[in-house]
Amino acid sequence: MSYAQSIVNTSPAVRSRRRLLFTLSIGAVVLAMVVVVLGAFTRLSDAGLGCPDWPGCYGHLTWPKTADDVAAAEARFPETPVEHDKTWPEMVHRYFASLLGLAILTLAWLAWRGRSHEPLPIRLPLFLVGLVILQGAFGAWTVTLKLWPQVVTAHLLGGFATASCLWLLALRVSSWRFAVSATTGIRWLALVGLIAVIVQIALGGWTSANYAAVACADLPTCHGVWWPAADYRQGFNIFQHVGPNYLGGLLDNHARTAIHFTHRLGAVTVTVLLALLVFGLWRLRDSWSRRMGLLLLVALIVQVSLGISNVYWVLPLPVAVAHNAFGLVLLLVLVTLNYGLRKGGEKKDV
Q: CA nearest 48: which of 166, 153, 195?
């Protein structure tokens, strides 16, 4: 008997434990979103190397504060003088990430403890444990490899994946029911839309990691033309050498233009796909589909508007951070939509 089938035949004690797991999952989702936003703030404020060591900061549990501590830190790391406006964002991000790791371990422990007599998902919490450990490694490599774009992008994707899996866990242990009469075409379009958004998030991470967000300063053209001169081979060379230090980026303008312009093309593609999906959801005429379609449309409009604002206003920090945050919101909406369409389809098939 599957988890979905057995969930209705449970005792009050089991339902109570599931509610606890749901509440903790929602809390972990909120914490994961905070970590993603703090990571974006740290990266976009050029504080990714605010602490040259890991997991401490200049050998401190927090960061050097007094004049003596600063002098000792700079003597130990002479190539990286202490900048307080960059040390604290990095360490605050690390502390929240550590708290998230603890929350995920707690979720996995609760699921494992009840695995023998409760219809609780266990593989997803265990996967999350592995994912958060990998995220910790990426966090360390981000510092030790001096913001190598491959690691920075993977770290960002890992953060989005962690939040998405936690949200999926919350959906699975919730008491919410989905009764959606969707066509196979809508289900496939929702899946394609989800994949397209994931690819676009990866492109956004690559754009940010290579400091290509303002490579094109005009819209809708780029450098005054519709198809700018660009070096796509260099821009997307994932086998570039490591180091010495990628703060500020090492690619030339043509390579950064290639990255930025590809991200723009991805945005157009995602917008068209999701607009078609919203139209299809609205035509289903059931309340859940229409609500999800409206939510998806709002998230899409906000995200596109933030992307355009980043170009026109030359990447203001609050707008750039919000662009990361709403990218995650858009992803979570699509995860919810795909889960609901799948569960509704299962009910229909039964």
A: 153
SS3 171: helix
The residues that bridge with 60 in the sheet, in sequence order, are 57
Tens of pLDDT, residue by residue over 294-312, are 999 999 999 999 999 999 9
3 state SS of 91: helix
Q: Is the dihedral of CA 314, 312, 34, 202 positive or negative?
A: negative
Contact 204, 142 (CB under 8 A): no
What is the token pair recorded at 19? 């509610």
Per DSSP, 219 falls in state S
> Catalytic pick from 74, 79, 83, 90?
90
118 catalytic residue (yes or no): no
Give CA torsion, residues 11, 15, 18, 20, to 10 deg: -130
Asked whether 125 and 169 are in contact (CB, 8 A), the reply is yes
Predicted confidence (pLDDT) per residue in 169-188, tens digit: 999 988 877 767 778 889 99
